[in-house]
Amino acid sequence: MPTQFRKTLIHLAVAGACGALALPGHAQDTQPDPVPGAAPAAPAPAQAANDGVNTVVVSGSRIAARGFSQPTPTTTLTADDLAKAAKPNLFETLTELPALQGSTGRTTFTYSTSSGVQGLSSLSLRGLGTIRTLTLLDGQRVVGANVTGVTDVSQFPQLLVKRVDVVTGGASASYGSDAVGGVVNFITDKKFDGFKFNAEGGMTTYHDDKNGTLQAAWGRGFMNDRMHVEVSGEFTKENGIDSPGFGEVGANGRTWYMNPALQESTKAMQAAGSPRYKSILHAQHVQYAKYGLITNGPLKGTAFGAGGTPFPFQYGTDCVGNFCVGGDLSGSVGAGTNLAMNFKRQVAYTRVSWDLDADNEIYVTGNWAQVKSVFSPNPGAAKQANLNIRCDNAYLPASVAADCASGYPSGVMQVGTANAEFPANITVHPTRTQRRFVVGADGRFALFGKDWSYDAYAEHGENTTVIHVQDITLNRRYNYAIDAVRDASGNIVCRDADARANGCQPIDILGAVPINMAGWSYIAPQNGPTQHTDSSQNVVSGNIHGDVFEGWAGPVSMAAGAEWRREDYSVYGDPYGAGVSLQSRYGPSYPLDTTLSTGGDNWFAGNYHNGRGAFNVKEAYVEFNVPFLKSATWGEANLNVADRQEKYSTAGHASAWKIGATWKTPIDGLRLRAVSSKDVRAPNLSELFAAMTVTNQAVNNAQGSSVQVQQRNVGNPDLKPEVARNNSFGIVLSQPSWARGFNLAVDYYDIKVKNVINSLGPQQEVDLCYAGYQNVCSAVSINGPAGTNYVLAQSFNFASLHTKGVDIETAYRTNLHDFGLPGAFTLRGMASRTIHALSDPGLPGTTPSEGAGNMAGSTPKWKALVTETWDNGKLSLSLTERWVSAGVFSNEFIECQTNCPLPTAARPTIYDNHLPGATYVDVGATYQFAKESTLYFKIDNLADHGPALVPQTNLSIGVNPAIYDVIGRTYRAGVRMRF
Where is the signal peptide (predicted)? Predict the structure, then answer.
């Protein structure tokens, strides 16, 4: 379709509806619900047959309509589907859907101290990231649980959810910014009557991750049902899977962990034809040992054991680069990270409504939720051959001290250690608390002889996030404490006089010896790194929708709306991390340590800084659904168009549009659908206003000279919205006469995102400035006097993303009585084939990277979920298969064993680039022992299939929980009752 014609068509539609402006609301609620107990099938419409075959509602639009009249594919999970999954958290059920890729949860980022997303249950569609998936509650926005604006699904009320709609296509024109990958909409039961509860408990086959869930909800009508009140409360506790400590050991007997690593060859080996990388197991790092290892000079290879006794370190075999195979294996190479966080969620929700008349109501909702996590990112705090130990160190054994004095002219040895003598592992404690209130009205009214629906609401939401890190060290204090000497009286003290004046206490890191607890208190003060973030969201929003007039092929429908929204945040770090003087923060009585950096960044990790920011947006949209064909010969067809205009106080103007069409062909049960849309994502608060952190770096100028600069990491308030073009085409087969009960949908999608916000390093910015990119030059100053040069390490709109693939969804339900057997059988299958997931940095000299099939990422080539269910009314049995296809470490790697080409930064070489896929089988059963009372049982990962090992060149965990199951076989049982 020509661009000008497309724009003209949309803007004519907007102009025709300008007098009918109002706001987005619960358009989904006006759609018919699926038949109770039926199998939610592929997104294809069908009138419920007498045997209870599912009625499918396709949403993805603000206009309430069935099936073929909407072009955007939507997957619906009913309350029955969610219950049969028997998960403690709906989030865990949703992430199994093939279209959901790259979500964060309690098994991801367990290695992270400073990311800020630990324990955050946030959804991601298409692998495009959580920031490009819009998650709604009853069609309404929810205050973000992170400065990126993403929501925490664990803070949602879940027992009252009657269905979840997953819109797997661009939906910005209908729903607004962030819906590039799609929309996940949680729909609650607003007229629940009675009392129900759910009690569930479980654990793994390794007797860990013990969990329990209690949920209860009550609802009742008053004053002849004009007033309706409902409340719910939920509590979930999952104990997590703790760190196994040091060495090659899996948590609680998990045997699949074998110290994986990517071994990097030398430049000489690569020149001789060897690959750059080789995946190895039983890896031993050569730069440190459990209790200390000398890594240079004549004493290289001397390790320290019990009581500080020196011994020859066992490096193992095949030592290349930083790793050997086998050997000591008592340290930590990726081991020690929690596989799952200790996790607790508490949610209280209420909704009170008042019917003004039979067609109109006003309501108020309130939600309080708190989610707490605890985990250990790593045991100890590895120092890789970067410690200077002097020959007169008071803790050196006499024999080592003597050899040091004669063998090291500088009087200094290099030592690496895992710091296994620390009395406790680092633990991270994120706590997120939400307070959300909504006042609204919805109903129906007559206009020009037609029925119209409306919804309007005002929302205020707050989220407070506190991250506290315990048992972590201050780098400078650690360095002062390990540099110990004897004073004139023979006492062991810190060498540095200023450090002693500031309370320095020495510690011994050379051997398995009890740590001096006074020294531990000095290097790891118990206040620890702390980040306190307050986020708030205010929304005024509403919409109307209805039939404008009766066209010759059916009613022409319209939805229109407007919204005002404000988002703001403020974040404060502790003074050791943020760089605020302790005395200025806590008062003159607080001790001032002059040995620490006044600019902050003193912790081993978790250096949180201060910042604040805000923006507001005004937006309006209109959408039309126009039937234009209704023929016994040619079938039925309709056109769906939408346009949204947005004005951000920061990013300026943005617009989104959608054109879609559906055709119910004259072929029995066959429908076609297609949609093309422009979608947007505005820069979030973090990208715009990230707090500044400063480090010292060296960059090369255009003349090849090295220049010392301050790298000032900071947000970029000049960022513009990301812009996406989303195209999809689908074929839907819905219960043809020759296959009653069968539904099938196959949808092809192609999403291109440009102006993607991506961060740049200091050298990249300098190079781009010299290359003529003036918008980058404003962030670079390297020609001033020494000490004044800096580079603002910011994000810019340079990058692009391109993902495309195919979604398949099918469902079949049959009454087995027709075959002389009891009960009914239901099959439901969903699969996504990712053809491409290209990420292009957009910088000179760089090439796009392919994410499809990259098993170290989040987008396997194939991801599938298939469930078979037999149900005879009282007893139900289910079997579920979860499958991901095999893939590679990286699509940019060149696999070779000998005669390899010289590797480049864009195309490294690797010995074996293959990583296996995985199939997980779950079984479940329910038994109805009384009316609306059910016992249930579930086993996930029946075969206890362990994850593939995904080694990295650094000390990451060595597995990828975004793709593989890292928990293992899990048993759950519970009871649901309703009165």
Answer: 1-27
